[in-house]
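Sanity check. The docking grid for uracil depends on where the pocket ends up, so I'm generating a full predicted complex first rather than guessing from homology. Inputs follow.
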Amino acid sequence: MRLDRFLCEMNLGTRSQVKAYVRQGLVSVNGAVARDAAAKVDERSDRVFFRGQELKYRKFVYYMLNKPEGVVSATTDKRDTAAVALLGRDCREDIFPVGRLDKDVTGLLLLTNDGDLAHRLLSPRKHVDKVYQVDMARPLDAEDIRQLEQGLDIGEERSTLPARVEVLDAGRILLTLHEGRFHQVKRMLQAVDNEVLKLKRIAFGGLVLDGGLAPGEYRELGEEEVAVLRSAASKHEDLDSCTAEYADAEQEAGVNDG
Ligand code: URA
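Predicted complex below; grid placement will be based on this.
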């Protein structure tokens, strides 16, 4: 890739800033001061230094964001703040959110440039777990819980897959889903004559939202956390063909909300 792109991806600044650094002789490649920002570097083998410090290139980056209310799960947006914009200096051109949370929904949103992992995490075939903390208008009774756990009609061809309900108190549950349909939690609660007052995703694919992150804050994932995601993304390869066919149709229809 071009040296200026490499420097941008390492978060040194904008394209014009990094070009200025090169002109000022602050960048060296394999021991020689770089003079041409357009020169090609091999990010796997060339050793690039800025002000004497080596820049270790990472192809893929992974962040967990505690998405606040009012932010849309997008790379850019004309009207609203896009989740990716919250990364500030860490924002590389190629980062995107893995799936969607509604604008009024808070909590764990994964941001990455690893398209393959994202695709596998979102694939309906993988049944990656998502855990939501749900504040509801009314307490659930035993029959509501039975329906949510068994799967229920939310107005689509297929009922929802079995989910898990853990009652935290009269107005709050943890709901674990193994799929991600459009507005799924809200529609499931509607189907049992209830209403979601607040919704927060607290886990995704085994990755748990860091309680130290205030809304709007983010941090990079550790290697072990990325491994947890990889493992979630590689499970459940062998569904029966009927479920797999449905999963494909669902993905084509673009209903997965992550
Ligand atoms: N379910 C919803 O209703 N909304 C979301 O954003 C995620 C799950």
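Relevant for the grid: The chain is about 25% helix and 25% strand.
Also worth noting: Residues 62-252 form a domain with the Pseudouridine synthase fold (CATH 3.30.2350.10).
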